[in-house]
């Protein structure tokens, strides 16, 4: 039983790593298509929410 838990932990780590690399690729694609920085967009929307502005 403990060996299955270890395998699961390793799988989760691999999946997370894969997801983060996929997200980075998607982010680059988005930036190329939109021609702007997605991080700035996220920051702007978060700032808007914290200021109580609907958006």
What order do the helices and strands come in, and which of them pair?
Blueprint lengths: L1 H33 L3 H13 L5
Notes on the structure:
The chain is an all-alpha fold and 55 residues long. It has 2 helices and no strands. The longest helix is centred in the N-terminal third of the chain and has 33 residues, at 2-34. The termini are far apart. The model has no long low-confidence stretch (mean pLDDT 73).
Mean pLDDT: 73
The overall strand count is 0
Please tell me how large the radius of gyration is: 18 Å
Figure out the total of helices: 2
Biggest pleated sheet: none
What's a quick, concise take on this entry?
With 55 residues, the chain is an all-alpha fold. The chain has a domain at 1-31. It has helices spanning 2-34, 38-50.
Label this structure with key terms.
55 residues, mainly alpha, 2 helices
């Amino acid at each position: 039983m403990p060996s299955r838990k270890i395998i699961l932990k390793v799988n989760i780590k691999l999946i997370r790593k894969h997801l983060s690399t996929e997200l980075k690729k998607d982010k680059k694609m988005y930036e190329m298509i939109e021609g702007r920085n997605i991080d700035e967009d996220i920051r702007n929307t978060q700032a808007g929410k914290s200021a109580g502005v609907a958006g």
